[in-house]
C-alpha cells in the first residue's frame, strides 16, 4: 500500500511540470528595418546585441533616409521605420505609430583643409549666418562671414534625399528641407565626403557620421563648425564642446546645444507591430537596449518618454 502511494506521488511530480509549464516559446522570426542614416549605427548595435539573446531572430537593417523609412513602414514593406524627425499629422493619420528610442543632433561641417579654419574655429558662426548660407541665397564669401575681407565663395552642400538631418537642420533655421539651398548630395556618408574634398565647402551631418566611432574625434578631413550661440563674435568656453563626440553628446544631454538641431529619434510601426518578434525587439530597445546608447554615441531619453513607448506596447 505504501509503495503504491509513493508511486502515485512520484508520478504526480513528473506530470505537474509538464501540465503547468509556463516557459515561453523561443523567440524566432524576422524583422525588417528601413530608414534614417541618423539611427542606422544605433539600430545595427541593437540588432547585434538582440540576436545574441535570440539567435533564431533575423534582423535586416537598411539605411536610406527618414523619408524612405516612413514610406516603407506605411506601405508594409518594413516592420519598423527609422525616422530622425518629428512625425507629421498626415503620417499619424495613415497609421504611423512612433516610439522615441534615443536622441542625437546635427552639426555643421567644413573641410579640415579650409584655408580659414583657424578663424572659423575661433569665431564660429551664428544662426543668422547659417540662414544667410542655406536660406537667403546670398552670395556668401568666407571673408564676409569671418570678417577677413577675403572674397572666396562658400560652397554650400545639402542633402538630396528626404531625410531627418536636412529637415532638422532646416527647422533650426526656421524652414523646411525644401528651403535649403546648396548642391544636393545623397546620404550622410556622401555629404561628409563632399565637404571633406572641398576646402571651401560647408555642410551638415548627423553626429555619428561627423565623428569617428573609434577615436571619438571628428572624422579625418572634417572639421565641426562651432555655433556662436550668444552672437558675441567668438566661441567662449561655454560654447566649446565640439572637439569630441562625448563633448557634443554631453552638451545635448545638458540642453546646452540647441534643439533643433538636437532631436529625438524614432522607430515607427504601422499601428501596433503585428509580430511578436517586432514587439519584443521594441520592448528590449526601450529597456535593456538602452545600456548600449551612450557607448554608441547617442543620448539616453528620460524615463517618461521610454515609458510612453512601453505603454503603447501593452
How would you describe the overall organization of this protein?
This protein has helices at 2-19, 40-53, 66-74, 89-93, 117-123, 127-134, 142-146, 164-172, 188-197, 207-210, 245-253, 276-285, 303-313, and strands at 29-35, 57-63, 80-83, 96-111, 155-159, 183-185, 201-206, 222-224, 262-270. The termini are far apart. Strands 1, 2, 3, 4, 5, 6, 7, 8 and 9 form a nine-stranded mixed beta sheet that branches. The protein is elongated. It is of the alpha/beta class and 314 residues long. It folds into two domains: 29-103 and 264-313, D-Maltodextrin-Binding Protein, domain 2 (3-Layer(aba) Sandwich), CATH 3.40.190; 105-253, D-Maltodextrin-Binding Protein, domain 2 (3-Layer(aba) Sandwich), CATH 3.40.190.10. It contains 13 helices and nine strands.
* CATH hierarchy class name of the largest domain: Alpha Beta
CATH architecture of the largest domain: 3-Layer(aba) Sandwich
- CATH topology of the largest domain, by name, is D-Maltodextrin-Binding Protein, domain 2
- Secondary structure class reads alpha/beta
Features:
9-stranded mixed beta sheet, 314 residues, single chain, 13 helices, D-Maltodextrin-Binding Protein, domain 2, alpha/beta, disordered N terminus, 9 strands
Can you give me a brief rundown of this structure?
This protein has helices at residues 2-19, 40-53, 66-74, 89-93, 117-123, 127-134, 142-146, 164-172, 188-197, 207-210, 245-253, 276-285, 303-313, and strands at 29-35, 57-63, 80-83, 96-111, 155-159, 183-185, 201-206, 222-224, 262-270.
Amino acid at each position: 500500500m505504501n509503495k503504491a502511494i509513493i508511486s502515485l506521488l512520484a508520478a504526480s511530480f513528473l506530470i505537474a511540470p509538464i501540465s503547468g509549464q509556463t516557459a515561453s516559446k523561443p523567440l524566432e522570426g524576422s524583422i525588417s528595418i528601413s530608414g534614417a542614416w541618423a539611427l542606422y549605427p544605433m539600430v545595427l548595435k541593437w540588432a547585434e546585441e538582440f540576436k545574441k539573446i535570440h539567435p533564431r531572430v533575423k534582423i535586416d537593417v537598411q539605411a536610406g533616409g527618414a523619408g524612405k523609412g516612413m514610406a516603407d513602414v506605411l506601405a508594409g514593406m518594413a516592420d519598423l521605420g527609422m525616422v530622425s524627425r518629428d512625425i507629421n499629422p498626415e503620417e499619424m493619420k495613415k497609421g504611423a505609430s512612433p516610439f522615441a528610442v534615443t536622441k542625437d543632433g546635427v552639426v555643421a561641417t567644413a573641410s579640415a583643409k579650409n584655408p580659414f579654419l583657424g578663424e572659423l574655429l575661433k569665431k564660429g558662426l551664428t544662426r543668422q549666418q547659417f540662414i544667410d548660407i542655406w536660406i537667403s541665397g546670398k552670395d556668401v564669401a568666407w571673408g564676409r562671414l569671418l570678417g577677413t575681407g577675403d572674397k572666396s565663395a562658400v560652397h554650400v552642400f545639402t542633402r538630396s534625399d528626404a531625410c531627418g538631418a536636412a529637415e532638422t537642420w532646416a527647422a533650426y533655421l526656421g524652414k523646411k528641407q525644401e528651403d535649403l539651398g546648396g548642391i544636393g548630395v545623397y546620404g550622410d556618408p556622401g555629404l561628409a565626403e563632399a565637404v571633406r574634398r572641398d576646402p571651401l565647402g560647408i555642410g551638415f551631418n548627423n553626429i555619428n557620421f561627423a565623428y569617428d566611432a573609434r577615436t571619438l574625434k571628428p572624422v579625418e578631413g572634417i572639421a565641426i563648425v562651432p555655433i556662436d550661440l550668444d552672437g558675441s563674435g567668438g566661441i567662449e568656453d561655454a560654447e566649446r564642446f565640439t572637439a569630441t563626440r562625448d563633448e557634443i553628446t554631453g552638451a545635448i544631454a545638458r540642453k546646452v546645444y540647441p534643439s533643433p538641431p538636437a532631436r529625438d529619434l524614432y522607430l515607427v510601426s504601422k499601428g501596433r507591430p503585428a509580430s511578436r518578434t517586432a514587439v519584443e525587439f521594441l520592448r528590449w530597445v526601450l529597456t535593456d537596449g538602452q545600456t548600449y546608447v551612450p557607448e554608441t554615441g547617442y543620448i539616453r531619453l528620460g524615463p517618461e518618454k521610454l515609458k510612453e513607448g512601453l505603454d503603447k506596447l501593452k
